[in-house]
Amino acid sequence: MTLKVVLFDFNGVIINDELLHEKLIEKVLLEENLVLQPGEYRKFCLGRSDKAGLENIMIQRGRYVKAEYLHQLIKRKNLDYQQQLESMEKLPIYLDTVDFISQLSQTNLKMALVTGAVRSEVELVLNKANLADYFKVIITGDDVKASKPEPDGYLLAVDVLNQQYIDINLKPSECLVIEDTFPGIEAAKLAGMPVVAVANTYPFHMLQRLANWCVDYLSDLELDRVQKVYQEVV
User: Fold this and answer.
1) H-helix or E-strand containing 155?
2) Residue 109 — very low, low, confident or very high, per pLDDT cuts 50/70/90?
3) Distance CA 190, CA 194 (A)
4) What is the mean predicted confidence (pLDDT) over 158-180?
5) 45 near 29, Cβ under 8 Å?
6) Does domain 5-16+93-232 match CATH 1.20.1260.10?
7) Which residues, including other chains, have CB under 8 Å from residue 73's CB and lie 6 or more apart?
8) Residues facing 176 on adjacent strands
9) Which of 94, 99, 96, 114 lies closest to 193, judged by CA?
10) Which 8-state DSSP code applies to residue 131?
11) Chain segment 222-234, per-residue pLDDT in tens
12) Does CATH number 1.10.150 belong to domain 18-86?
């Protein structure tokens, strides 16, 4: 077996923006006369799409929200997010991730991005951080019905990569996923993909037992050793 593709999560892996998302979700809920309780964002939203997170909280509070109204809430939050980022002189990008992406670009490995985030948010960050050229395939929360921890996004990425690179003949087991949350790790595992957990959001010891590899920083990941593991698997 050969490692062919590295699939990156977005929030918490490429950009350090989880606190911003939490504040914006809190704002949306306040406008709905709901107060975000301590720990709720981490429990219901972290690693999931905005739709899944907000829907989970609403259900927890006994609120029924129609799909169209939920879409409007997400759109409002999305606009706030873009305005916040546009006002930043420098985005909170993980520099070790940027270095790792640069390292991968010097190899024959393909790269793709799989996230529950809204496409407009992702494209804004990638363009502003000069990272857009590295990702020819981007799967966002707009592209799948089910959020992580369901594997839909990762499985769709395999299909799209096979369409874009005709000769790659990619299988899920030939991908390596970079994740930072429990739902993301579970989604990759359900898709049949080995995972590197980076301890940006949760402590190392909490991720280590769930992922194939765990690092404090992506700069710690020894890619050559990872590739050898793939070659040893028949």
Assistant:
1) helix 152-164
2) very high
3) 10
4) 96
5) no
6) no
7) 28, 32, 54, 65
8) 6
9) 114
10) -
11) 999 999 989 887 5
12) yes
Residues 6+ apart with CB under 8 A from 68: none
For residue 96, give the nearest of 180, 36, 190, 24 by alpha carbon: 180
Q: Is the pLDDT of residue 63 over 90?
A: no
Q: Where are the domains of the chain?
A: 5-16+93-232, 18-86
Name the percent of the chain lying above pLDDT 90: 90
Could you tell me the two tokens for 147? 């959020």
Beta-carbon contacts of 23 under 8 Å, excluding residues fewer than 6 positions away, are: none
Alpha carbon distance 110, 96 (integer Å): 19
Which residue, 217, 221, 228, 225, is CA-closest to 16? 217
Instruction: Count Cβ neighbours within 10 Å for each residue of 96-107 and write b for 16 or more, e otherwise.
Output: bbbebbeebeee
Q: How confident is the model at residue 61 (pLDDT cuts 50, 70, 90)?
A: confident
Mean pLDDT score of the chain, rounded to an integer? 94
pLDDT over 70 (residue 187): yes
Token pair recorded at residue 124: 């804004």
* Residue 62 one-letter amino acid: G
Residue found under tokens 């799989």 = 114
Q: What whole-number distance in Å separates Cα of residue 25 and Cα of residue 230? A: 40
- Where are any strands of DSSP class E within the chain? 5-8, 110-114, 137-139, 175-179, 195-198, 213-215
